[in-house]
Amino acid sequence: MRSKTAILFVTTLSSFLTPFMGSAINIALPAIGIELGMNAIGLGWVSNSYLLAAAVFLLPFGRISDIYGRKFFFIAGIIVFAIASVLSAIAFTPALLLISRVLNGAGGALIYATAIAILTSSYPKHERGKVLGINVAAVYLGLSLGPTIGGFLIMFFGWRSIFVLTALLSLIIIPIAIRNLTADIKAVIPEKFDLTGSFIYGISLALIVYSFPSLPSFHGIILLVIGLSGFVAFIIYEGKIKNPLIAIAQFKKNHIFIFSNIAAFINYASTFALVFLLSLYLQQVLKLAPHQAGLILMAQPITMTIFSPLAGKLSDRIEPSIVASAGMVITVVGLFAFSTLDESDGIWFIVSMLVVLGLGFALFSSPNTNAVMSSVKQHEYGVASSLLGTMRLTGQTISMGISMMIFALMMGETEKSISNTDGLLSGIKISFLVFALLCIAGVFFSMKRGKMRS
Q1: Contact partners, residue 258, CB within 8 Å, separation at least 6
Q2: How sure is the predictor about 437, in pLDDT bands with cuts at 50, 70 and 90?
Q3: DSSP code, position 451
Q4: What is the pLDDT of residues 384-416, one digit of tens each?
Q5: Nearest-CA neighbor of 327 among 361, 351, 354?
């Protein structure tokens, strides 16, 4: 059956897959570290290599799908994701695991670049908040089940079983997508692909993210300066060519689009490392088992799963900027609370603050996505959703990068082992404080976007 409902089902199912794997892997990091002999910085790269690859490829893949059609690239992304999951499951050295995670990220980028664009182009404006809320709820359901299922898989079968399950889920999605997606979703544009701009963009972003764990060393500063200079060159280049990767001049006049994307970047930069930090805190500081930590971490994404559809529907009636900004304010409260963590904090304190953060995330994400996608024309959906996804993934990589940088500063070059609980706890607390302050800036940009409805 080819219908809007079938399209909603297949895109929502794919949106469940990637966060499920990501959250399950976060709970597996201590076990991976023990088996492969990786320190806290190396474990950060298990998550960050995936995010970096996805961020680098997402915008180019979104543009390619706008030009050549989305169905092929959507299905290709799921296939690549499945293959990479198998390679991760059989990786027996840190290098092989990180390489397979990069390939995972490339597959994830193909999924991110097409799923929201396919969904948005299939529904009228007055229904988008609702279906995007359902899609976001699927993301958070993946985040909910990941730590719990991942914890039990680690306990009974080891951390490699997480990748095996991810591959199997991917294989289930492929025939459903082939059968239900239409040949194209009214988005084929006869333009040339900007290969040079994509290369400059990808290299610049990679250098910036890679520089964070090395800061404030001279080496890290040099990488950061080169990466930022590359972005300036990218912006200048994009303004001069006929078919740019992103039409900067065109989007520059769209304040809702610009400030919604900036708010998304800051929100994810402030919050993504939460599960990584709390996974280390619960297992290394409080000495809980992986499945116990997973059950506790469920509180946040379950809250998001419940409230995201409601927040999406609310943004169909109330200005998205108001709903999203309220969510960011609530998020600030939760992050500040976690900056006070110590070894005596009870489980109920952690769970209650995770619920607070879950509510804040839910109120922000669906309305912000609705604002972005409703502020552009249909032939721009691929680039718009890809740029929003890039803000999300870049924010997530920066979030991990900030945490890794703080760990490097607090634990020293020779004491980065996750068994160093004093240094670990100090790094966790400072990370949450930095994220809370960063999120305050996000509230400003969320409010500054203006009204979507006249």
Answers
A1: 251, 252, 449
A2: very high
A3: -
A4: 777 777 787 778 778 877 887 787 777 655 444
A5: 361
**Residue 411 buriedness (CB in 10 A; 0-12 / 13-18 / 19+):** buried
* Residue of 244, 429, 247, 419 lying closest to 335 (CA atoms): 429
Query: For residue 434, which amino acid is it?
Result: V
In this structure, are 199 and 174 located in the same domain?
no
Residues 85 and 177 in one domain: yes
Q: What predicted TM-score, i.e. pTM, was given to this entire model?
A: 0.73
Indicate whether 305 and 219 sit together in one domain. no
Give the residue with greater pLDDT, 384 vs 150.
Answer: 150
Using CA atoms, how far residue 178 sits from 72, 242, 258, 343, in Å, is: 9, 34, 34, 51
What is the chain's alpha carbon radius of gyration, rounded to the nearest angstrom?
20
| 322 and 393 co-located in one domain | yes
Q: How wide is the angle at C-alpha 89 spanned by C-alphas 52 and 211, nearest 5°?
A: 20
Does the residue 453 lie in any domain?
no
How is residue 117 written in tokens? 């664009």
Confidence of residue 32 (pLDDT cuts 50, 70, 90): confident
The domain of 98 spans: 4-183+243-448
